Amino acid sequence: MKNRKIFIGMFVFLLLLGVAGCSGERSSSENIFSAGQYFVVLPESLEGRSVPSNSSGSSNMDSDGIFYKGDSEAGGITLHILPDDMSLHKQIFFEPMSSSKTERETFTLRETFDFSPLYPSEVVEADLSKLDTLCPSYAASLTMKDGSEQTRFYYVASNYHIYDLWFDLNFLSEEEAYKAAQSLFFGTNRADSPDGKHAVSFYDSGMEHLAYFWDLTGENPVMTESMPASGLLPDGVPDSPLWSPDSQKLAVGISNENIRSFTFLTGARPTGFHTGAGDLMKVFTDSGYSFDYELAADPEAELVPLEWGKDSESLKFSYAWTDSTGVRRSGTAWYSLADPRAPIKDIDEDPIQK
Fold first, then answer.
1. Cβ contacts of residue 274 below 8 Å, gap of 6+?
2. Contact criterion met (CB below 8 Å) for 268 and 249
3. pLDDT tens digits for 158-203?
4. Domains in the chain, CATH or no CATH each
């Protein structure tokens, strides 16, 4: 980026994750170390052990790892969660700009990020290079005070998450280190498309949930796209991804403390159902349907995707909510992507349970 001024008080940017050479399904014979939202295939000579993450703000899923060869530490992986005061953001991602037009401190995005603030204190020499991937990913060759050498790989998973994968070259070759780094995979709830050409995984960045899309047609999966996974639902948590039969569209269940709903992440602009009762019914009324009841102020709505139609243009879903008299209502309907102005079709409401 050329001289784009960035004020530190503003939201910084969303960094895409895309690690070439990652696979979500591995052979059971491989030496896999898995913890939280990632896994890595280690050389057979190493043993991975989970340790609690030292990063402030890490979730229950997050943990670091130490890789042992015998009783010696031969490598590890650490999740660095950058502080909200933006101090590390300034050092790693940006460099100061001088400007006579404003007294405010301005910065420009570095062409090559600087991960030296994350280096071990024992480093005396470092050579950092950017990896040829779709995301900000770097390899650092480090020489330590005792003369030993390390190779470290830095992966920027989100605005605040940086994974630090390292290997001590006293215990394995540089080739083995790079091979392990290429196996690093991020995200949970992976789902492959019916044709086997695509996959999706989900990542909790600490600020929002992200969806990562992967191309599976090559020797190794390659990340092709990243997007917020919550659709129109604030603070929504994704689950149960459901690919269409043609492998071109994806419905994802989304829930927060008020509602369970769904959204479409491919094949349509992100959509879904809002939390409020009025907004919730609007999708139905816009489609020409009316009900002989009103929803409660807190309808405890559940809208769950069930199955795609054979044409891959419509999705059957179930709904359940509470009306203003306290009666629980439920039924099924179809959501048509071919008719975005009136997407709801074929409502079939269940009899009221007495």
1. 232, 233, 280
2. yes
3. 888 999 999 999 999 999 999 899 888 888 899 999 999 999 999 9
4. 19-186 (3.40.1000), 231-349 (no CATH)
